[in-house]
Amino acid sequence: xxxxxxxxxxxxxxxxxxxxxxxxxxxxxxxxxxxxxxxxxxxxxxxxxxxxxxxxxxxxxxxxxxxxxxxxxxxxxxxxxxxxxxxxxxxxxxxxxxxxxxxxxxxxxxxxxxxxxxxxxxxxxxxxxxxxxxxxxxxxxxxxxxxxxxxxxxxxxxxxxxxxxxxxxxxxxxxxxxxxxxxxxxxxxxxxxxxxxxxxxxxxxxxxxxxxxxxxxxxxxxxxxxxxxxxxxxxxxxxxxxxxxxxxxxxxxxxxxxxxxxxxxxxxxxxxxxxxxxxxxxxxxxxxxxxxxxxxxxxxxxxxxxxxxxxxxxxxxxxxxxxxxxxxxxxxxxxxxxxxxxxxxxxxxxxxxxxxxxxxxxxxxxxxxxxxxxxxxxxxxxxxxxxxxxxxxxxxxxxxxxxxxxxxxxxxxxxxxxxxxxxxxxxxxxxxxxxxxxxxxxxxxxxxxxxxxxxxxxxxxxxxxxxxxxxxxxxxxxxxxxxxxxxxxxxxxxxxxxxxxxxxxxxxxxxxxxxxxxxxxxxxxxxxxxxxxxxxxxxxxxxxxxxxxxxxxxxxxxxxx
Length: 561
Prior knowledge:
The chain is α+β, with helices and mostly antiparallel strands. It has 15 helices and 21 strands. It has a seven-stranded mixed beta sheet. Helix 13 (461-472) crosses helix 14 (501-511). The two termini are 31 Å apart.
């Protein structure tokens, strides 16, 4: 609910689906099935009061208007176009039902049903359940009794002492991890990269019929799940590309571990913060085990009060002088179909695009890397790198929605091929991570002079200086990087009297959101006066001026406790 209410474009979180219509019965049967699903699931007839805290109201009766569209062309194309149109409209969560429905007909016969729902009402797991139930009703099969808990029941569950303790534990976990993770995984130069004007990213769809066997072999050898193996492959390649020693992934968690929530119809998905240390690992098997061990506490601490977690994110970021980017996101949807008994795991397109189950053609695989790669139309996804894992059995399917500023198309394709090559090589024997370069021509990010590793983050010194210039309006200053045993490098900002370093630091923190290569200085030195002339850009000239005051933006060293 928080993300929907604060997102600058809430339509990004609308979920759109196209299901096949029943083979017979016409519009009357569709209306009957729709009525049954609305009566069955309170989430589909809930409105929200965006107060603090938000409240929910479930309608006991009402009316759902269904748009009927006669298609003069391919009805599936018409349905997909209709889904995109309805998804682009903002829901009024306080007065509207959280769904829109349309039926596409051909020669008067219903062919497809278009569903668009707000993420406040349903997450991806609920979408899978909806598809399962729609397919069962369309086939004339009765549905089992609905889940024991409705969304309002979950509100009561969240007030129990045991769940509150889960939330408190999650806050402590997130705080401890956020003190050590990189500010951002992807750091395009602030000076050479244009400012982002949109979040439209094309998707690279990767499919392979041989990869599932490779995943299974590695999983058996390491004791991990196939999903953990896939995430480990993604992790080591991101580490190779970015040069980070710690790769932090935000993995989406469905939060349906409790038996009473297994078939819950609503929205429970939240973030799991999953940092993996790569620096001391020798082989890919080590990386898989590291992902597995890091995943256990990460997913255990993914049930929380979003407001409390964002307070922690903002608080720790301010203490470290960073702005946590959340720019590497992983969404494993491969287990959902198995969990809810989905009738068909193939799909013409998938969430976060319009989900169209079935209607999928077989890939034409390239034997050189053991799979196929295909570009999908761009979607509006406010994240630099969003990996969606769809299938692990019979066929491996993963889509990477990637910002071209961090991976241009040709390099994204190299990333996709490298992932399949890595799985194939690691299935034969544990792969030394030093041999990773032999599997791909994807180069590591080139960082020349002016780049420093500071507080587990790659920092562009020119970007920090530009940030200080912007907030000081041209007042003389110079930021330098000095070696530091704890931080790698400490950023020192040289100012001239009568500058107030505490106010400068406060303004620097306020300017950080959206920055990925700049952090706030760690130390501020106030000199009696700036150096003369060109000396303003000379660290030695600043060092020669008397220091009147020294201030630290945060505690010395880095607290990993």
